[in-house]
Amino acid sequence: MRFSIVIELSKSDNRQAQLRLTRESWARVREIVKGRDGEMCQYCGRPAPGGEPDHVLPLAKGGTDALTNLVWSCQDCNRSKGSKSLREWMQGARTDQDAEVTIPITARHHEGREVIV
Questions:
Q1: Which run of H or E residues covers position 23?
Q2: Residues 6+ apart with CB under 8 A from 3
Q3: Domains defined along the chain, listed by start
Q4: Would you say the pTM of this structure is higher than 0.70?
Q5: Which residues of 73-83 are buried (b: 16+ CB within 10 A; e: fewer)?
Q6: Residue 99 to residue 90: CA distance in whole angstroms
Q7: DSSP code string of 33-99
Q8: CA–CA distance, 10 with 117 (Å, rounded to integer)
Q9: How many CB atoms lie within 10 A of CB 97?
Q10: C-beta separation of 105 from 115 below 8 A
Q11: Cα–Cα distance, 84 to 82 (Å, whole number)
């Protein structure tokens, strides 16, 4: 299977140019991520047929729209994580400063590797 993804160059606040996917390309990427991750939230492991792609490293923190930076996420996890990195999100969920943080991520990227935080 071969995909052709078109990108467009856009200016963000007249600062540096960022490569962003066109609307049509984003729709295609969304379907690829949805199929790859089996409509399962890669953060909590629940079925997420109404989910959405989430940037593991948010765009605001230098992440990209690359497939290796996208996982399928339920809306609850995606809204809770917001623009935090995965590490920041999980550390913010701690209730005891001495407790070990368990990261319940089940993401598998197309290379078959687990996401490492």
A1: helix 23-36
A2: 28, 32
A3: 7-92 (1.10.30)
A4: no
A5: bbeebbeebee
A6: 12
A7: HHHHTTTB-TTT--B-TT-EEEESS-GGGT--S-GGGEEEE-HHHHHHHTTS-HHHHHHHT-SSTTS
A8: 30
A9: 6
A10: yes
A11: 6
d(CA 67, CA 54) in angstroms, rounded, equals: 10
Using CA atoms, how far apart are residues 12 and 110, in angstroms rounded to an integer?
Answer: 30
Q: What angle do CA 45, 62, 23 make, to 5 degrees?
A: 75
By C-alpha distance, which of 84, 90, 88 is closest to 105? 90
Give the amino acid at 23.
R
Q: Is the pLDDT of residue 87 over 70?
A: yes
* Pairing mode, strands 7-11 and 52-55: unpaired
Helix (H, G, I), strand (E, B) or coil at 108: strand
Residue 52: what pLDDT? 96
